[in-house]
Amino acid sequence: MSDQLLAGHRFRVLTLVDNFSRESLSLRARERFCGEDVVNVLEEVSATRGLPKKIRVDNGPEFISKSLDWWAYFNKMKLDFSRPGKPTDNAFIESFNGMFRMECLNQHWFLSPPDAQAEIDSWREDYNGCRPHSALGGRTPNEFAALSAWPRPG
After folding, report:
1. 1-84 belongs to which CATH class?
2. What are the CA-CA distances from residue 60 to residues 11, 83, 84, 115, 128 (Å)?
3. What percentage of the chain carries pLDDT values higher than 70?
4. How far is CA 52 from CA 18, 47, 107, 150, in A?
5. How many angstroms separate the CA atoms of 23 and 32, rounded?
6. Within the chain, where are the H helices?
């Protein structure tokens, strides 16, 4: 996703969501992303959550990089690319991104990258911890993830 600061400088947001628990695992704002940046975010999240068997991604340049491809290979993970021009291949993230845009990005004038990240982090905490989802039996993503706990890496 992309947006801009009040001064007009563009920035991008990497959205990482667990489709099972509906948790927003990371929302990272920065000027641009390359494959190594994506790998770093995935490493941070996997340190506490473990690794999934596959990750569904679009065909953005940050996802078709050698860095991400090698990382996935060495971690025995599949990169599941959506078909170009077919956002319905990953309808949940498209819905999540639309809600994130409407409720966060469109609601704020961001003064600086740290200001944008602070607002985004606040929205993410509210989304994960305060909003019940009907698909999760009326639980928040954090509550559902806690009830569905899987073994964590030691």
Report:
1. alpha beta
2. 15, 11, 10, 25, 26
3. 96
4. 9, 12, 33, 11
5. 24
6. 35-49, 66-74, 91-103, 113-130, 141-147
Q: What is the mean pLDDT of residues 8-16?
A: 95
C-alpha distance across the termini of the chain, in Å? 33
Which long-range contacts link 48-52 to residues 24+ away (Cβ below 8 Å)? 48/152, 49/18, 49/25, 49/152, 50/150, 50/151, 50/152, 50/153, 51/75, 51/77, 52/18, 52/77
Using CA atoms, how far apart are residues 150 and 24, in angstroms rounded to an integer?
Answer: 17
Q: Calculate helix-pair angle for 35-49, 66-74, nearest 10 degrees.
A: 30
Are the C-beta atoms of residues 144 and 22 closer than 8 Å to each other?
Answer: yes
DSSP type of residue 110:
-
Distance CA 98, CA 91 (A): 11
pLDDT at site 154 = 40
Q: What is the pLDDT of residue 150?
A: 57
Task: Say how many CA atoms lie within 13 Å of 112 toward its Cβ.
Answer: 2
Structural tokens at position 60? 């953005």
What percent of the chain has pLDDT above 90? 71
**pLDDT tens, 41-79?**
999 999 988 888 999 988 888 888 899 999 999 999 999
